[in-house]
Amino acid sequence: MPSPAPQTVRRLSRHGVVIALLALILFGYLRYDNFLGTFNVLSVLRYNAMFALVSLGMAYVIMTGGIDLSVGSTAALGSVVAALLSPYGLVPGLLGGLAAGLAVGAVNALVITRLNILPFVATLATMLAASGCALLLAGNQSVSVSYETGFIELGQGDLLGFPVPAWIALAAFLAGAIALNLTAWGRTVLAVGGNEEATRLMGLPADRAKASVYLVSGALAGLAGVILAAQFGAGQPIEGVGWELFAIAAVVVGGTLLTGGVGSVGSTLAGVLLLGLIFNILNFENGLGQISLSAYWQSVVRGAFLLLVVVIQARLAGRTEEPA
Amino acid sequence: MSPLLSMRGIDKRFAGTPALTGASLEVAPGEVHALIGQNGAGKSTLIKILTGYHAKDAGEVLFNGRPIAFASPGEAQRAGISTIYQEINLVPYRSVTENICLGRETRRFGLLDWRAMHEEARALLARFGIAIDVRRPVMTYPTAVQQMVAIGRAIGFKARLVVMDEPTSSLDEREVAVLFDVIRGLKETGVSVIFVSHKLDELYAVCDRVTIMRDGRTVRVGAMGEVSRLDLVTTMLGRELERTLHDDARGGPARAGAGAVIEVRGLSAGPRVRDVSFDVREGEIVGLAGLLGAGRTESARVVFGADPMGGGTVRLSGRDGAPASPADAIRAGLGFVSEDRKLEGIVPGLSVRENLTLALMPQLTRAGVVDEGRTRAIVDRFIERLRIKCASPEQPIRELSGGNQQKVLLARWLCMNPRLLILDEPTRGIDVGAKAEILNLVRGLSREGLSVLMISSELEEVVEAAARVFVLRDGRTVAELDGDAVTEPAIMAAMAHGPESAEAGHG
Fold this sequence. Notes:
The structure holds 2 protein chains of 2 kinds.
Chain A: H1 4-31, H2 38-63, H3 71-85, H4 90-113, H5 119-138, E1 143-144, H6 153-156, E2 158-159, E3 162-163, H7 164-182, H8 184-194, H9 196-201, H10 206-232, E4 234-235, H11 243-253, H12 265-288, H13 295-320
Chain B: E1 5-14, E2 17-27, E3 32-36, H1 43-50, E4 58-63, E5 66-67, H2 73-79, E6 81-84, H3 96-101, E7 107-108, E8 111-112, H4 114-126, H5 143-156, E9 161-165, H6 173-188, E10 192-196, H7 200-206, E11 209-214, E12 217-223, H8 229-237, E13 260-269, E14 273-281, E15 285-289, H9 296-303, E16 311-316, E17 319-320, H10 326-331, E18 334-337, H11 341-345, H12 352-356, H13 361-364, E19 365-366, E20 369-370, H14 372-385, H15 402-414, E21 420-424, H16 432-447, E22 451-455, H17 459-465, E23 468-473, E24 476-482, H18 488-497, H19 502-506
Parallel strand pairs in B: 3-10, 3-11, 6-9, 9-10, 15-22, 15-23, 18-21, 21-22
Antiparallel strand pairs in B: 1-2, 1-4, 4-5, 7-8, 11-12, 13-14, 13-16, 16-17, 19-20, 23-24
Helix pairs in contact in B: 8-18
């Protein structure tokens, strides 16, 4: 029987990322003047919305025990397609980016579930292919979006005093949490990651669940690309490099097991915000003139922090997984 | 009454090897039907064809009078066939509720109704007298509870036919009794059950009729009350009672005055090993016989230090106590050639030489460098001695035949110079010629002083090789047969009835 202590530890490990996030916010609040000022908060949310979308898709994929390396180039492709369609209006641009993402996701889904290719290999291939498509479509340079059709509102606009990209990400995470926790689809996704063979024998649609997460991941990456184009005023064929790693990091920091079967949408969001805030805080440090960190050093610090969080989490989890 | 399920003339081949040849199975409504056969007889394949996991090559399946061919276990489930597979097939990280309810979840406004689902899971488990927190992951509960969760899932589907593939293998007596009550309850409501088990007592306790399979065929169907235990065992193993013996061929009779290398008394461990006793003397081949699930491999694993000991005494090379770990056992002069070559034995990508010297490596290494000369000498010696057929010692072991792979594994242990070698199903999956060769090899080794404990489901093999045989049944040693008493009928009688009638068998 479980003693009270491991119970607490289990809760801690589940909410570890939230606690770290709150600690970081407190630290920033005490140290910098405008850390919790409207401008800083809104720009952090605006900038990180696209990473949040990509990470949400990645979370589902990782919950099934898979991986999607193609999200970065899919976002780049989405941004180019959206920029090309932006002269026709907000909706065509939005749908175009989404469709581009869905297309890449569909290829991933088919190759992985029908041809039984490992997700790592399949999505590595589509990562290269999507990147190539983006460069071809864009003619090897960034594609300006139309400023006449209101398309840029998707990246730069506000709604009720809140950035539109942040609204989109918030809606996606709400829907995502409901889908994971309150639909049979979500539970099947987790079951497949926990034990694919058993899931099949239980008569659950294992292949369909696996295929669906790549479609979702592709669509969300495409959507992130739309926001990218709208935010920076151009389709960016060479953007998105390393996004997949950011997303994997956010998902893992959020406590989702890389082997699949365990995961949470809320913690993934906390993971995204955690990684985003570290970047933000390093900017503040630079601003204070205390230290002067180049972008390279920022990556080193982020990497070290990521390692720290993951190690702490693994230790907490290790203590709870001993048989009760 | 027309049967609920009728499978006729089912053929199935895997990579050209027939697994089923014209197999059949018929189950009446509200009937508990026993399906038995040795390992590899085709029971699991037949069940997996029924549930849509495998596609049949030929034959006809009628369920409820209609021809069916399910494309997936999901389809079978929706049609009213629930299955509990032999290995517990649950998702360990997910909650008990999810494992029971997924696939027929309760919804409210299109979303999952967790409260109703938890309630349902609790109610189902309450039928088994189990009250647990259904929100916690399945893996936090003991195996018996997990098994009950799997059973709960199966009956929760309100199936017309529930297939149970060895459901009792991880349950204790009380839990088995509870399960039997549930089965009787199902029967009363008109649900049919296919019950696969190797425990004869259970079959007689709960089943109405029995189908016996052997070598991919259905060899006998009858009412449980009309088939005696001995019939059951002999039909299953396909042995005639009149079979003659080859006493002269039998190796290594107990040497007078030879000391025991190992003495096991009243060993218990886990649910499978309850009261096992045996001993092996120097230079002797001793057989450990019993039906599947009788606790042979489990006992051997405890003796080898791979699993913890529950109770009893083990004396190994004059030292008291079971080894604490396999490494400890190896130091004490034990070797263990395990049953599953692919899973526990060979490293397919490595060469014959590397596979052969894997366990010996620490001794062949000086200051971190492997002594190539000595390695080659040892490898060459064993390849010649055991007549391992390979292109060169550098050939990857996966390219060798099953028999030759087994010889390499044998050599791996022999080069450690063990005093006692435990062989678990040493000839499984090996062709007839290689079988005889390996048995000869074992006999030769025993003449040179090696003690051997041989676990085998092939009675012929046991009778041919062993000087003494201990028969296990339901985790207990029920008979010790010595010398002329080692006959197939005697062993089978002991497997079927236990100690009292073992004598009648050979008399």
